[in-house]
Amino acid sequence: MKSSYKYRQAFASGIGVNNPVFVQILGICSTLAVTNVLKNTVVMCAGLVFVTGLSNLTVSVLRQYIPGRVRMMVETLIIAAWVILVDIALRAYLPDISRQLGPYVGLIITNCIVMGRAEAFALSNPPGLSLVDGLASGIGYSYVLLAIAFARELLGSGSIWGFRVLGDWWVNWNLMVMAPGGFFMLALFIWVVKGSFLKEKQEAATGAGKPAQTAPAQTAPAAAGAQGGKS
Question: What pLDDT was estimated at residue 92?
Answer without folding.
Answer: 94
